[in-house]
Structure formats: C-alpha cells, structure tokens
Amino acid sequence: MRPIVHTLIAIVVVTLAAGCGQGGPESSEPLEDLAGWDAGKADRAGEGEGEGEGEGEGEGEGEGEGEGEGESDPWAPARDATLAKVTLPDDLAAPERYAYPSGTSPFGLGGTEFWQRWPGGEMPLFSYTRGTELGRRCMNASAIRFETIMSDPPDGMISLLENSNWSGRFFNWNDDYSNATSDGWGGARLWAWRTGLIKWISKTNRDGSCELPTLDMVRRLVEDCQATSESSEGEIQGCTAR
C-alpha cells in the first residue's frame, strides 16, 4: 500500500511543478508584449512561444531586424517644433481623411481652411477632400506640429487663456501656393481673427515643402496677445506673430 501512496504523491508533485513552470511566463509575456507595442518597439514574434526560443528570436529580430523599430516616421520633420520649413518624402501621400490633433486640451485646433493662391483657386475652401494633394499634406503636417507644441504648451499659454476672453480655440488654415501659376510670398503665421479664434496658418510651397508655425512663433504670439488683452479689457483680436 505504501509504495502506491508514494507513487501517487510523486505524480502529484511532478504535475504541480510542471503547471507552475508553464503558468508564470505565459501569463506575464502578453503584458510585456503590450508594453513593448505601446513604446513603439519591434514586434518580437518568437517571445510568446517559450523562454528559450522566445528570448533568442525576440532579441535578434526585435532589436536588430524588427520591422517596427527600423521604420522611420515620414512625418518626423513636422514633429520638430523648431523647424520653420519642412520637406516631406516625395512618395508620402496625403491622408484621405483629416486627423484632428489629440491630447492638447484645453487648446483645440479646428479645421480645415485652404486659400488656393492662384488664378481661379478657391479662397477660402473649407473642404479637406477638395484640397490639392500637396496642400492636404501640409495641412496634416501643420496639425501634427500643433499637437507637438500644445501637448506641452510653452509658458504663458495657460495664463493667456485664464486672463483674457480667448477660449483656447485655433483654426487650421493653409495658404496653398503649389499650383504652377501661384505667385506671392506668404509664410507661416499666427493671427487672432477674433478674440475667440486664432488662425493657425501654414504655407504649401510650389515644390511641396511646408512652412509651419514654430514653438518660438507661439511664444511671440503669447507676448503680443497678452499685451493686446491688457490694453483691451481681455480682447485679443488682431494680435499676431510670424
């Protein structure tokens, strides 16, 4: 009888040990995969299939040859808030739908408004889908620039919002000079069209490059709008920066 009992106990111990060994890695790896995805890391395809195989394939493919980490961001120049003029890849297509910036509260960017600076061009044109290919690219680049700056706004922005009659609203305007008959100089600028609405203005050049508002330009706007507000009982209409 005792040998049978000992045998049964041994089977139970082995079974529990095997179960514990498998349960730990399998339950934690999905969380690691999600964290890596959120951080923009490469997809480590072999990591979930076992410790030995997963670690070898994950480190080799994910860090060295993984698709996610090696890919460059074609919109990266728009995310550099110091660049007044950006050039996007020639093969970069404009998104079919306009994507509004996110994570910028209490500031918001409406849109879209094109001014097609050539004979017969529409001024203004509020339809994104009817904009030119190059104009829509720069419109999206300008929205990305807004999101970059307003996700961590410069000093003075909150103060301007709290101490003036401005509502924190912007509107995405693009001066489109991409047509062969376009003529004029233009350029990026910020302009309080009304106290409640500041125009966030970019420019599309004939070669497809984009001129965008910069962080320094926003700082200059804050200074001018604060001065205008103090002398006009909270009204900021007309304040501007280039």
Task: Describe the protein in words.
With 242 residues, the protein is α/β, with parallel strands linked by helices. The chain folds into two domains: 2-70, no CATH class; 76-241, no CATH class. It has seven helices and seven strands. It has helices spanning 2-38, 51-65, 67-70, 76-79, 133-150, 157-162, 215-231; strands at residues 85-86, 108-116, 169-176, 189-194, 197-204, 210-211, 240-241. Strands 1, 2, 3, 4, 5, 6 and 7 form a seven-stranded mixed beta sheet that branches. Residues 1-68 have low confidence and may be disordered.
Q: Which secondary structure elements does this structure contain, and how are they paired or packed?
A:
Layout: H1 2-38, H2 51-65, H3 67-70, H4 76-79, E1 85-86, E2 108-116, H5 133-150, H6 157-162, E3 169-176, E4 189-194, E5 197-204, E6 210-211, H7 215-231, E7 240-241
Parallel strand pairs: 2-3, 3-5
Antiparallel strand pairs: 1-6, 4-5, 4-7, 5-6
